[in-house]
Amino acid sequence: MEKSEDWRKLSRRQFLKASGAASAVMGSAGLGVFGYQAGKDSFSYTGCESFQGQAENFNRQRFAADHATYEKVGVASRVDARTEVIFSRVSSLMRQWDEEKGLDSLDKGLQAYYKKHPYDLKEDLHARKKIFPKRQKDEIKYKKKFVLAKAWSNAMSAVWPPGIRETPERYDFPRGEQYGEPVEPLKMKSPEKTSQLIKQISYQLGSTLVGITKLNPDWVYSYPMWGRGLNPELPLEIPGHWEYAIVIGTPMSWDPMYANPNYGTSFDAYAKSRIIAYRLIKFIRQLGYPARPHTPGVEYDLMVPPIAIDAGLGEQGRHGVMITPELGSNFRPAVVTTNIPMKTDKPIDFGVQDFCKTCRICAKNCPSRAIPMGDKEVVRGYRRYKINSSRCYNFWYSNLGNIGCRLCVTVCPYTRKSNWLHRTALEVTANDPSGMSQRILSKMQKSFYPAPHPQEYYIPSMGGKNESYREPPWWLQTEDFIDIDI
Amino acid sequence: MQFFTSGFFWFIEGIFLCLIIIGLKYWTEERNIPMPFWKWLVILIWILYSGFTIAFIGTCLGENEPAAALKGGMLFSLIAIVSAYGLSRLLGFFRLTRHQPK
Predict the structure, then answer these.
(1) A20 vs B56: CB contact, 8 Å cut-off?
(2) Which of A287, A363, B14, B19 has its CA 20 to 30 A from that of A3?
(3) Residue B6 resides in a domain
(4) Size of interface A-B (CB pairs under 8 A)
(5) B:71-100 residues touching chain A, CB 8 A cutoff
(6) A206-247: per-residue pLDDT in tens?
(7) How many domains does chain B have?
(8) Does a structural domain hold residue A136?
(9) Is residue B25 part of a domain?
């Protein structure tokens, strides 16, 4: 009997010991599969769950600050959209430039700008004289590879609300009962409830993040762009009803975004954000209030990133792009200006300034060397990293894939999908005032996530290999679907 | 495969962890290894760290980042192995003689 009890006791112990060992093996295997699933899971594509507002899941209250993390150091001057916005400047230069007449062939505003910034003239002409011929030569040989990427980009921008051709006084205001838009504003119960409503409607329209702020006049252009219903020859007087700015936006599709500069496209998020903005102005006008959209591609009366920063969506990074906690730099915003009374959001400080100071991954990976490695400079009265937009734009135009580059967005350590690993890293860096975790994580990023040499992103005629940061997703690999010789 | 990202998966993992601790308890009793509270705490931290290492490798592979899986996996695994050896010495796992049952 005694012997039998000993045997049973021993057996139970042995059984539990064996169970413990087996559990260690099975638990480890389970964690491995969990990790694999978490990495692959389509729900880690932040923004895929839009329409419910669930993607805006970073606790901003903890990081709310009284002032945005940009620093005002002098008298601010507003941006002249005709010359200081690269798209407008280069477009005017291309239209007006005559090789024989030189600077005299340009209008007075452009002449004055280039006399003050001769380096920009050299860079802006470089695209026309040197890059275009080389690109044309390479296009014949290599562009077939990007057929699906271009088709996808064009499909995304096929639905595109038409731009504004009227002044704010005419365009922004409700059109009357025949459009279902009351001329008198409806009385809203409280600014808090209106904010809540506007945010929920924006989510329902598909916005991934939404922020509201009072419009800082420093961010409105001093002279407007062409094609906004305003006369670019006259200074832009800020209309009184541009009191608030609602910032909405969406991310670019994640897998193509990692295959920048060739396979990603800004136009997927551009089109979505634009459509949301135009729908939102309709909603606000139906409440009887004026509203005006400022949307991608290039149809703005103001600078969007600092407004989005004021609205508490993120902070500006070294690459000049706003970094949000949820999407990193992968966020394409649009703004709606209005005067419907709303409660505003506070800017946030979640450690980006300290991170960017030492990280420099975007600057090291930038093919055009447009992002500075050094410190911030004073630009129009604000201390910030000064981007060489001419060099950046030149690379855009050398690229054979979808127009643009977006590599700084792609390589930014904050631009990671939403899974346990990257959320943990985000929370650790945001909550570590010592900066040690930021240094360790940026070192890990550099060593764990290899990237091609920046020169390899260029076209072959310019000494490159048409490289992309990562392989394109299966659905953009032309050679797998179309019978053409690549 | 939604199971692996569900709450039920973590429930099962919790059961596995309990079984590991029970098994370890019997193993240390057999060897007459004293197990004060701090030793259990250190072991628990090591188990969680090892779990992180395995999940990190899996996540990087799932994200199609094999270089991160390899480099990070090697680094974290090396730390796990070295710390396991260090811990076994510190906790006296292989120092005392095995208990002989009567």
Answers:
(1) no
(2) B19
(3) yes
(4) 124
(5) 71-72
(6) 999 999 999 999 999 999 998 899 999 999 999 999 999 999
(7) 1
(8) yes
(9) yes
